[in-house]
Amino acid sequence: MPNLSNNMRGALFMMLSMVGYVLNDTMMKLASPDITLFQAVFVRGLILTTAIGFLSWRRQTPLNPFAYKNPMLWLRVSGEVIGTIFFLTALFNMPLANVTAILQATSLVLTLVSALFFGERVGWRRYLAIVLGFIGVLLIVRPGSDGFTYFSLLALAAVFMVVMRDLTTQRVAAHIPSIYLAYITSFMITLMGGVGSLFAPWQVPAWATIGNLAVAAGFLFVGYLFSIMTMRVGEIGFVTLFRYTVLIWAILIGIFVFGDIPDQLTLVGCAIIAGTGIYSLYRERLVATKRVAQ
Prior knowledge:
Helices cover 74% and strands 0% of the residues. It is mostly helical and 294 residues long. The chain has one domain (6-293).
C-alpha cells in the first residue's frame, strides 16, 4: 500500500479489524447451539492465547500474567472479561445485527462519561447526539414490547464494560507493550471460561464445533492485530469513523447466514446510532483542531 496516505491505511486497517471481530462473532454464534458459553470461551481462548503467547515469546515480551503491577491494567482486563461474558451471552440469544448495533453506542457513552466524570468539555451538539444515539438504542431494544428480552440489557451492560476498558487503556503505563495487553486479556478471558465451565455439565463438542471455535480464534486474532495497527497510523479521530462499517457486515451476515432480517425500527436505530456516533467524533475532532489553532 505504498500510495496510500497514513489516514487511508489506518481506515483500511480499522475496516479489516471490524471484519475480523464480526466474523469472530459469527463463528461463535454458529457454535453456540452445540456448546455452553463458558466452554466456547475456554476452547477459543486456548487457541487464541497460544497464538498470541507465541508471538509475545518471539518478541521477547513477558508471558508472566503478573509481570506488570499496574492497577489500570487490571481494571482494563476486568472490563474486557466482564464485557465479553455480557456480550457473548447476548450474542448467543439475539440477532447479530442487533447486538452489534447496541455495542456501537460505546463512543457516545464514552463521550458522556468523559464529560460527567473527567471534566471534558462537551457542547450542546454532542449532548444532543448522545440523546439521539440512545433513542436509536431504544428503537432496537424496545423495552416493554413483545420482542423485548433481557439479553438486550446485557448487551447494553457490555457497552459500559467496554467504556471502562477504553478509559483505563488510556491510563495504562506507556511502557507496557500492546502485545502484552492482548496476551493478558486473552489469558484472563480463557481462565474465566475454564472456571465457568466447571459449574456446567461438560459437553464434548463435535469436530465441526471445534473448527468453528478455531476459526473464531483466528478472526479474533485478526481483529486484535489490525486494531493495534490502526492506532499506530493515521489520526485516531479520522480512522475511528470507519468502525461503523461493522454494522454493514453484521446486517448482511445476519440475513444470509442466520436468516435474521432486521425490521424497519431496527434499521432506523442502527442508522441513528451510526450517524450520531460519526457526528460526535466529527465534533470532537473539530473542537480539538480549534484548540490546537489557539
